[in-house]
Write a structure and sequence with these properties.
Layout lengths: L10 E6 L6 H12 L2 E4 H14 L7 H10 L2 E3 L5 E3 L2 E2 L7 H11 L2 H18 L1 E6 L2 H5 L5 E6 L2 H13 L9 H17 L12 E4 L5 H16 L2
Parallel strand pairs: 1-6, 1-7, 2-6, 7-8
Antiparallel strand pairs: 3-4, 4-5
Helix pairs in contact: 1-9, 2-4, 3-5, 7-8
Length: 231
């Protein structure tokens, strides 16, 4: 196990996959079932994006956004809440403008360096974690004992994300095809970025959640965890 990736005391379940595959829902529920801490790495990039937008920075201004990320007082709680400068910003991270800009921010190498340091520290401090994102099993915790890749058909992913955004304050109504196009653009940006692209780890268990209920996915992930930890 690489010291740069984890400490020997860390037990990590890495859950990766594209937007709308069910990562957040499943990761939270699995963490609750296991009694482990929950790490939403996407929320970290959203927090940087939210702060950049609030300060009037262009998401593509790599130097300015990287400097912001480096100085940001960003704290993640084991239950998934995010605070910046002591203020809970969790409820402000899913707005349409943040969703639109977060891939640009997440593609900045210096921002990713800062966030990965946060994520690895979180693992050291909490010992056992369920971490979800897009590069958890490939970059952040390549030595994770358990790796899962969640995916779903594009239309189903769009349907799920549309349901989420319909509940978000300030969201504009969008039809299924428009949301599908947004997700395809997000996939393209995330999978082609030079640093930590979106892709499954070679040793991840792949689960297509299209026709599965959340309960079924949770049980499948827990079975994978139990099998891996018993060997």
């Amino acid at each position: 196990m690489s010291e740069s990736a984890e400490t020997p005391s860390s037990e990590v379940l890495a859950i990766d996959g594209p937007a709308g595959a069910g990562k957040s829902t499943i990761a939270r529920r699995v963490a609750d079932r296991l009694g482990w801490a929950y790490l939403d790495t996407g929320a970290m990039y959203r927090a940087v994006t939210r702060e950049a937008l609030d300060r009037g920075l262009e998401p593509g201004d790599a130097a300015a956004v990287a400097a912001l990320a480096s100085d940001l007082d960003l704290v993640l709680a084991p239950d998934g809440r995010v605070t910046v400068g002591g203020a809970d910003v969790t409820a402000r991270l899913r707005s349409p403008e943040v969703t639109e800009a977060v891939s640009t921010v997440a593609a900045i190498p210096a921002v990713r360096d800062v966030m990965v340091r946060h994520q690895r520290r979180f693992a050291r401090e909490n010992g056992r974690i369920v971490a979800e994102g897009r590069d958890i099993g490939t970059v952040v915790f390549p030595d994770a004992r358990v790796k899962v890749w969640l995916d779903a058909d594009p239309e189903e992913r769009a349907r799920r994300r549309l349901a989420e955004t319909a509940r978000a304050p300030g969201s504009d109504p969008a039809d299924l095809q428009a949301m599908k196009a947004r997700l395809e653009r997000r996939d393209r940006l995330d999978s082609t970025r030079a640093v930590a692209p979106l892709k499954p780890a070679d040793d991840a268990r792949r689960i297509n959640t299209t026709a599965m209920t959340p309960d079924e996915v949770v049980e499948a992930v827990l079975t994978t965890v139990q099998s891996a930890l018993s060997t």
